[in-house]
Amino acid sequence: MLAEPLDNPAKKPSHTMLPKWEIRGSDFAIFVAFLFSSMGLVSLIFQNVAAKFLVTDPDAPMPLLVSLSANLGMQFGMLASFLVFRKIIQHQDFTPPPHRRYSPTKSMQVGLKWLIMAYPIMIGINLLSRTILNLLGFEQVIQDPIRMVQEGGTTFELFAMYAMIVAVAPICEEVAFRGGIFRYLHHRVPLYASLGLSAFFFALLHANLYSFAPLMTIGVMLALAYRESGSLISCFTFHAAFNSINLALILLFPEMS
């Protein structure tokens, strides 16, 4: 697949460290289709393999390890789609050049800065969203990761679950939604649209009405961190710290989740 010519590397924008991702719209459409199909397919494969090994009763609730396998499969499907797509296009501008992104240390600082700004906003949005949904009569459904943490499990299950929440999910989701979707939309549509669309798909991924608005808020802030630093390290740091804080709160105060 051919790409458009690169921007002049000497031209450094003052408002963002993130240059335009020079791929065609048709290539991006392939990436999005590949992303969501891979998520579903790999998740189903992981779930079925785990179910066969555990010899589960089809009428019984899904065991924790099967649910965990399905979630891990979805995460690995995201990462696989990104890596395969990167291999297909063979394009050097897939990652911003060094002079267009911050150093790892500076990028981590940017990620933590945006996390500090985002957290109180997210809490306010979460409270407002819950109030409105409760008034409208919706029934709250706990997200799968929160449910799995609350239910606990064996040492292996807990280790795998915490690793997925703190490390696997931040890396895979940021690569796909900020490094892929937001990266393409940035410079092509108005900023509010690129922020909103990438955050919308990020929140939609979690398939939970009560968490949708706060996750959209976090998705916007993650994209702004990436936009400032030009490095996904900012997003990894932000997302991993955010998930770690929430995991600690669930374990320490289970009645609040």
TrEMBL record:
Pfam families from the UniProt entry: Rce1-like
Leader peptide range in chain numbering: none
Transmembrane segments: 28-46, 66-89, 110-128, 158-177, 230-253
Superkingdom of the organism of origin: Bacteria
UniProtKB keywords: Hydrolase, Membrane, Metalloprotease, Protease, Transmembrane, Transmembrane helix
GO biological process: CAAX-box protein maturation
CAAX prenyl protease 2/Lysostaphin resistance protein A-like domain residues: 158-244
Coiled coil regions, renumbered to chain: none
Cytoplasm as UniProt keyword: no
Gene Ontology MF terms: endopeptidase activity; metallopeptidase activity
InterPro entries, A to Z: CAAX_protease (IPR052710), Rce1/LyrA-like_dom (IPR003675)
Hydrolase as UniProt keyword: yes
PANTHER family from the UniProt entry: CAAX AMINO TERMINAL PROTEASE FAMILY PROTEIN, SLR1288 PROTEIN
Name this polypeptide is given: CPBP family intramembrane metalloprotease
Taxonomic classification: Bacteria, Pseudomonadati, Verrucomicrobiota, Opitutia, Puniceicoccales
